[in-house]
Amino acid sequence: MVAQGFVVDGRFAPGEVLEVLARPRVRRVVWFTLWSAAAGTALTLLLGVPTAYALYRLRLPGRAVLRAALLVPFVLPTVVVGVAFRQLIGEAGPLGGLGLDGTPVAIIAALVFFNLAVVVRTVGSSWESLDPRPAEAAAALGAAPLRVFLTVTLPALRGAVVSAASVVFLFCATAFGVVLVLGGLRYATVETEIYLLTNNLLDLQAAAALSLLQLLVVTVLLVVAHRARSRRAAPIDRRTPAPARPGRGDLPALAATALALVLVALPLGTLLAGSLRVGEGWGLDNYRALGTTGSGRALVVPVTEALGNSLRTAVDATWMSLAMGLLVAVVVTRRSRSTVERRVRAGLDGLFMLPLGVSAVTLGFGFLITLDQPPVDLRDSPLLVPIAQALVALPLVVRTIVPVLAGIDDRQRQAAASLGASPLRILASIDLAALRQPLLAAGGFAFAVSLGEFGATSFLARAEHPTVPVVIFRLIGSPGLDNLGMALAASVVLAGATAVVMLLVERLRVPGLGGF
């Protein structure tokens, strides 16, 4: 992709990149990307921080279920999120009278819906482990609750908040399916503009220039998140404090939690209701139609066949991402013997985080222009889509495994080696023994992400072997209420599958998102 941007007709031409970035439309796209991502990040923090307090520091009934419910949107396919919000704010939707359809407000609301779990999990995990005694001491000395929060609690949480904010901004700036469905051509971000330039206009140089800009921003944000994690204040008491009973002063946090749950439930409930709507009544006709190719043969294959493709692809992507993620985690967590080695390991850790925020569309397009010549011509290989999805899921796998491996005392390995254990046996008896649950959780994350991956797959999936997100996008772009009903039903099936996977991951009680 770098070569596509800087090399023109066989000559090095960096000025061409600047010329692309100076285009009026590109400037508008970049500006909309920046301010919508900033607005989405600010609103997510305003809603997510008090929700994290309520779900991690207060004794609430069904806390585990509420946490899992807020985690589900994060792994939903972005195209499903877009479809759900269109149903909610469209003319026939419950909020259709607000006139939000086709506006930036709808996009930002969907971004908050999608990223709320990042703030709740990242900040909540840190808040849960904070020693309450400094705040209690400040309160005993007469400090008001707001002052206690601003002077004691917030400084201790600053690293977690900055880390969560940088990751949320990154996700907002690189959202694809949400913006594509809700914004269309009127409101484009860098992500959707790359898709338009490559898929519709075939302007590869402009797409590469935007990809380079995005890569630079992603790198900066990952560095900020890494430094924020490094500066995260350690709690005085390593024991997890017992949750407190809610009091009158906790009403704002409880209200924010209720609002967050409504924000999650309303689009999903509207999506479910729309899938059951048949004419003037209710029924399962839209679900039965999943075995067809839709009205007017909108699809090449039925949705049921696409679901089988999605499941097989997700299984392949999961074992690939687990294998790669385990190797990466082992390399970056081993003790470094010199400063240079430590910096190399840190650089590798950052390198494998890049797929977290680099455009999935860029990855898909990059695969097309890279793996297109013998002996590595995978354009017609069934492994191409799983490989791309494994790369997209890799950062989640690495961030789930690395904290566990880094927490293993290296003296255990040294003791085993002194007793004659081989490196392979040390890996199996010490490292893998500690990774049983984290590997299951990482596999669940990877499987859910692969099920819903849309950006790279939209480039790479062949028409006769589509995945469910691809067919959903085709159905909502096809005329007819029958096709829309099928799209809603397919979205519910896909959302239900990812929700079940994430509920199982939540039961493993592995931090996962907190690793970011």
Topology diagram in text:
Elements: H1 2-6, E1 7-8, E2 11-12, H2 14-21, H3 24-57, H4 63-75, H5 78-89, H6 104-129, H7 133-140, H8 145-173, H9 177-183, H10 190-200, H11 204-230, H12 251-276, E3 277-278, E4 281-282, H13 285-288, H14 303-333, H15 339-351, H16 360-370, E5 372-373, E6 376-377, H17 384-406, H18 410-418, H19 423-434, H20 436-452, H21 455-460, H22 468-476, H23 481-507
Domain ABC transmembrane type-1: 30-225, 307-505
Membrane topology: Multi-pass membrane protein
Organism: Nocardioides donggukensis
Relevant terms:
single chain; 516 residues; mainly alpha; MetI-like fold; 2 domains; two-stranded antiparallel sheet; 6 strands; cell membrane; MetI-like
Explain what this protein looks like in three dimensions:
With 516 residues, the protein is an all-alpha fold. Helices cover 71% and strands 2% of the residues. It has 23 helices and 6 strands. Strands 1-2 form a two-stranded antiparallel ribbon. β3 and β4 (281-282) form a beta hairpin. α22 (468-476) packs antiparallel against α23 (481-507). The longest helix has 34 residues, at 24-57. The chain is globular, with a radius of gyration of 24 Å. It is a multi-pass membrane protein. Its main location: membrane.
Structure summary:
The protein is mostly helical and 516 residues long.
